[in-house]
Amino acid sequence: LTGLSSASKLYYRSSKTLKRCHNLNLKSGYDGVTCEIVHPIVPCKRPSPSAQAANFGNVVLVALRNPLTAFPSYQQEKAEKYHNAKEQVSKEEWISFRDQYVGNSTHSPLFQEWKEFTLEWRNMDKYHVAMYLAHEEWADETKGVALVTKFARVLREEGFPIQYHTDDLACLWHKNILQSAIQKKKKHEDEGRYVAEFTAEQKNFLAAELRKFSSELDNTRPGDEQLKDILTRYSADFK
């Protein structure tokens, strides 16, 4: 999209030439677009993100995913990263994880973490949310192109070079995002992956909490209307 050498750098990765997403050998300009960070899930307190505002732009892109698929994906990624899992975790493992961390209507550590992450960046001093990037929209036939178009506009407004005209973004999205999503879905189907399920109590609780979260937003921060729309759609998916 931009023609730069790196789309994203990971905040937590460092070396002799890389620290907090900055190339220490680069005298001017930039060689990447975004700095990926999952604070406060992986806390960054010394210094905090706000204390580093002078080293970054003031625009934040917040990636969200519906707990319906985010929580199973989180467990799967941990199994692959830390336990070298090559296949989908068993249903028994998912149920054990689900009931411990998704919990119930009185205790849901994962949802609380998901909500706190979103609120932390919504309310972050010295930054403002330019976009909430809903995971489900990237590969959506009707919303995907609109998402990429808005994403490109945000980057352009922040001074990044955009190598494609607006009319070309649909082709770019189809080639680089949709096709990849289709291939991944087919791979999972060929592997016979199951769809992780929640109990009725958990679904009702998560749907209610998402609606409550939406109602708590008072339109005082940039992106609140978009966030409320996303939360409402997420809640409806728990039917």
Helix and strand run: EEEEEHHHEHHHHH
Strand content: 5-15%
What average pLDDT do the residues reach? 94
Structural class: mainly alpha
In short:
The protein has 239 residues and is mainly α.
General description of the model:
The structure is a single chain. The protein is globular and about 55 Å long. The chain is built from eight helices and six strands, in the order βββββαααβααααα. By secondary structure, it is mainly alpha-helical.
What characteristics describe this protein?
mainly alpha, globular
Furnish the topology, listing elements before pairings.
Layout: E1 6-10, E2 18-19, E3 22-23, E4 32-36, E5 59-64, H1 67-83, H2 91-102, H3 109-122, E6 128-134, H4 135-138, H5 144-157, H6 169-190, H7 200-216, H8 224-236
Parallel strand pairs: 1-4, 5-6
Antiparallel strand pairs: 2-3
